[in-house]
Design goal:
The complex is a heterodimer of chains A (215) and B (228). Chain A has 215 residues and is mostly helical. Chain A contains eight helices and no strands. Chain A is globular. Classes of the chains: A mainly alpha (215), B mainly alpha (228).
Chain lengths: 215, 228
């Protein structure tokens, strides 16, 4: 390297270091971050997948794909999980166990598991699972299903939809499954049960379903 | 050198993919989440569309949604929005004079276990509230009594508080509740690029929003448009 270009290179490096110092250190000092209103204690919403039981399902190659999808909040591509209609009994049992192991406040993950399990076979087992979900106690607040929130914000979009995510998913998937089912009377019984739910949004959805479904 | 320039150009493009300014106090988690949510919005594609949706948003199309949002909102900040349960809000200018293109999110945007579709609904609901020319689409007061089909009081499931007399309804399909319902129901019915779960979620949230539409004509027009 010739002297001048080397000097230029040293100069550029020094300029970069000084600029980085000003940006990283002085910039932070000159514009301190305004504290975020501490209306709610900051808790990180880390999704912990419940540990796996040593069952046959542990050998199922689809389980890691399901875990990844659940950890992503049930969002994104579903193809790697395969068709739930052909899941083995062991895999279905493992997914039910995971559903039960999630805290009830993890509505999104539980709703995603309901979405998968509603499409498994045999149909009657899926129906039983969905009925069980619909019978779950109402969740009292987003923070803690066991106790109501203090204060309220009725402006917030959604009449409690997030609170009843698993139950509403169960009902929506039951509606879809019933469309092509030979077990019409049984699905209708599920809808009738949902209509008696203590959760208003579940009740309303069941009413709409029953009103639109052929007798 | 050309690689460096290309990388610089790419990073500039990536940074400007969403023309939103973020407040300094916005947590990295929320910033990351809103960027991911807007990326999902931008990816939406569909061939069909309902008439009301076409009137408000155009086609079922990510580019159109992004344009709709960014033409109304250019800043996202943090606020408590006046309630521990709030997720987002728009603070209209004093006495309704002037304009705003800012929306405010609370920590609840990422704290609670909501599907992505729920966050999308919240963003577009608030974006509608920035429209000065429409007086910020104020909510309508829910009727008194506000009863469900069983004759029971409609209540907020946040606290069990009755919604009758609360400013928590819409009497037009074009307000914040109505328009976000129309958006989601179209995604549910017509999105061809969405994962099936997202379409089911969109249907669930749209259907539930229907309970907020209390204007008889508004309800009839939404049902004719999307629930036949």
């Amino acid at each position: 390297m010739k002297p001048m270009p080397r000097l230029f290179a040293y100069g550029a490096a020094a300029t970069f270091v000084v600029a980085a110092f000003f940006i990283l250190v002085l910039g932070e000092v000159r514009s301190p971050r305004k504290p975020v209103p501490a209306t709610i204690p900051s808790t990180k919403s880390v999704v912990a997948i419940p540990p796996m039981e040593p069952t046959m399902a542990s050998a199922d190659a689809r389980l890691p794909a399901v875990d990844g999808w659940i950890a992503a909040g049930g969002e994104g591509d579903e193809t790697a999980m395969g068709d739930p209609a052909v899941y083995s009994d062991a895999l279905v049992q493992e997914l039910v166990r995971r559903y039960d192991a999630f805290p009830v406040e993890r509505r999104r993950e539980r709703g995603a598991l309901v979405y998968l399990l509603s499409r498994t076979n045999p149909e009657r087992n899926a129906m039983e699972f969905l009925t069980r979900v619909i019978r779950e106690k109402p969740c009292a607040s987003l923070e803690n299903c066991a106790s109501p929130a203090e204060g309220h914000d009725d402006h917030d979009p959604g009449l409690g939809t997030p609170l009843a995510d698993p139950q509403l998913m169960a009902l929506a998937m039951a509606e879809q499954r019933a469309e092509k089912s030979a077990l019409q009377a049984d699905w209708r019984a599920l809808a009738e049960e949902a209509k008696r739910s203590d959760v208003q949004s579940v009740k309303r959805r069941a009413e709409r379903w029953l009103a639109s479904a052929p007798q | 050198m050309s690689k460096l320039l290309a990388a610089l150009a790419w990073s500039t493009l990536a940074a400007s993919a969403f023309a939103l300014d973020f407040a300094q106090d916005l947590t990295p988690e929320i910033k990351k989440q809103i960027q991911a949510d807007m990326s999902f919005v931008a990816s939406i594609r569909g061939q069909e569309v309902s008439a009301l949706h076409k009137k408000i948003f155009g086609g079922v199309d990510g580019a159109g949604y992004t344009k709709f949002f960014e033409s109304r909102v250019n800043f996202v900040g943090m606020d408590d929005c006046g309630s521990a349960n709030a997720v987002a809000c728009v603070i209209p200018p004093l006495f309704g004079f002037g304009t705003t293109s800012k929306i405010w999110l609370t920590e609840n945007y990422v704290k609670f276990s909501h599907p992505q579709i729920a966050r999308l609904m919240i963003l577009f609901h608030e974006a509608r509230h920035t429209e000065n020319k429409n007086r910020f689409w104020p909510h309508a007061t829910c009727p008194t009594p506000f009863l469900n089909s069983d004759g029971e009081d409609m209540v907020s499931l946040w606290t069990g508080a009755q919604l009758a007399g609360e400013p928590a309804c819409d009497v037009t399909p074009f307000g914040s509740y109505g328009s976000s319902l129309i958006l989601l129901k179209n995604v549910s019915k017509f999105c061809t690029s969405c994962a099936q779960k997202a379409r089911v979620d969109a249907g669930i949230y749209a259907d539930d929003q229907l309970g907020r539409i209390t204007g008889r004509e508004a309800l009839a027009s939404i049902k004719a448009d999307l629930y036949r």
